[in-house]
């Protein structure tokens, strides 16, 4: 151990940083996610007891993995002596598996693809990713997605049981399956980020802990898949969007639109990192949806104001994005850029062609365009349609205020 004490909070930080690595290695060793996770939990409990007084070990991850493996083997030996077939199988599996960290890169990739297997429901993939790779507690995940803790605990238990009983493989997919599966992995991470960036419900517009966790997972994906341009694009997109967080909410917690944001509050370090990643993507010349969205955000980050933004370039990027993702939501976002190039009437004509009646932003964007055309009664009606479709308090307050100014 190194000299000097470490606080329990610092141990918790190590837990969050090393949890995915440790579970990934132990899942390979024992061939079972539940055994791996339980063993890692026991090892971190031991760390909480020992590290504050003894100090941080030279290799915290190695200490955790070794301690977890030894404790799990002791427990499995006790259980296997009672004719527990599952314990016997796990113990036999462990006897043939080394514990070295040398293949940890592949171990974490295997864990990511296991958590994001298409046989699991999307909400379960998100929860498993946060639990096993992110090290979030069941309580934290339940709070993030506004479900009771017992409900989330049951989902996680059932998911791990399904992985075991259905024989979902703990491996990186075969090459032919890789592109589709990578898209699924990236979608899970971006879903986590989006829930943090614009919370679907609750009082707060932003859940920063989810944004930061998604970015951490994004960095991990780029580390593990450096030649996957869409992983780089996703990280760039999240960093550029996260850079605006200090300006997106007013002192009273109110929503501040892009056009009204104080851009001096944007995090320049994140902007520069995101722009550098976008340039890295451009050099590869293998565009994809996340890279194009990142490029759109990079154009925004280049401009000192809305009026000086290269909107024509943004429209062109949306045109490319529509070839990859021809969805009404992308078309709606493109229309916002068209309004800056060709005016609100041209944009409104595009918006009115979309079938997005249950999406609050469709009505909110229509309301803004109608307001700019001085069609106040129609704008009020559009705001009235938007307000009940969002359950986020900050968004509802903003829309209600906009309606009241007409």
Automatic annotation (TrEMBL):
Keyword Transcription regulation: yes
Protein name: RNA polymerase sigma factor
Record domain DUF6596: where: 181-281
Span of domain RNA polymerase sigma factor 70 region 4 type: 112-163
Domain of life: Bacteria
Spans through the membrane: none
InterPro entries, alphabetized: DUF6596, RNA_pol_sigma-70_dom, RNA_pol_sigma70_r2, RNA_pol_sigma70_r4_t2, RNA_pol_sigma_r2, RNA_pol_sigma_r3/r4-like, WH-like_DNA-bd_sf
Any GO MF annotation of the entry: DNA binding
Keywords: Sigma factor, Transcription, Transcription regulation
């Amino acid at each position: 151990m190194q000299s000097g004490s470490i606080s329990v909070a610092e141990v918790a930080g190590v837990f969050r940083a090393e949890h995915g690595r440790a579970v990934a290695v132990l899942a390979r060793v024992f061939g079972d996610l539940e055994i791996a996770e339980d063993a890692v939990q026991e090892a971190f409990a031991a760390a909480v007891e020992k590290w504050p007084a003894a100090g941080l070990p030279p290799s915290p991850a190695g200490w955790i993995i070794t301690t977890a493996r030894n404790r799990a083997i002791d427990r499995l030996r006790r259980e296997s002596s009672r004719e527990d077939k599952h314990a016997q199988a796990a113990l036999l599996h462990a006897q043939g598996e080394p514990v070295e960290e040398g293949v940890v890169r592949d171990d974490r990739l295997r864990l990511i693809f296991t958590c994001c297997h298409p046989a699991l429901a999307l909400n379960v993939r998100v929860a498993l990713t946060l639990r096993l790779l992110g090290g979030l507690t069941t309580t934290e995940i339940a709070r993030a997605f506004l479900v009771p803790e017992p409900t989330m605990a049951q989902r996680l238990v059932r998911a791990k049981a399904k992985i075991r009983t259905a024989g979902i493989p703990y491996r990186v997919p075969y090459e032919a399956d890789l592109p589709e599966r990578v898209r699924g992995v990236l979608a899970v991470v971006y879903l986590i980020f989006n829930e943090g960036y614009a919370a679907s419900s609750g009082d707060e517009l932003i859940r920063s802990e989810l944004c930061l966790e998604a970015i951490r997972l994004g960095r991990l994906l780029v580390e593990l898949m450096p030649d996957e341009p869409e992983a780089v694009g996703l990280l760039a997109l999240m960093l550029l969007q996260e850079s605006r967080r200090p300006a997106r909410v007013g002192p009273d917690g109110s929503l501040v639109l892009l056009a009204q944001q104080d851009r001096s509050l944007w995090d320049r370090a994140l902007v520069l990192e995101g722009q550098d990643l976008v340039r890295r993507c451009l050099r590869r010349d293998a565009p994809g949806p996340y890279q194009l969205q990142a490029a759109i955000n990079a154009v925004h980050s280049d401009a000192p104001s809305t009026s000086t933004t290269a909107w024509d370039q943004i429209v062109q990027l949306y045109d490319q994005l529509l070839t990859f993702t021809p969805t009404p939501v992308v078309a709606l976002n493109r229309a916002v850029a068209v309004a800056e190039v060709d005016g609100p009437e041209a944009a409104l004509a595009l918006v009115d062609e979309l079938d997005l009646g249950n999406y609050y932003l469709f009505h909110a964007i229509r309301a803004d365009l109608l307001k700019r055309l001085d069609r106040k009664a129609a704008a009020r009606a559009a705001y009235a349609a938007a307000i009940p479709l969002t359950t986020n308090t900050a968004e509802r307050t903003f829309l209600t205020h906009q309606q009241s100014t007409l």
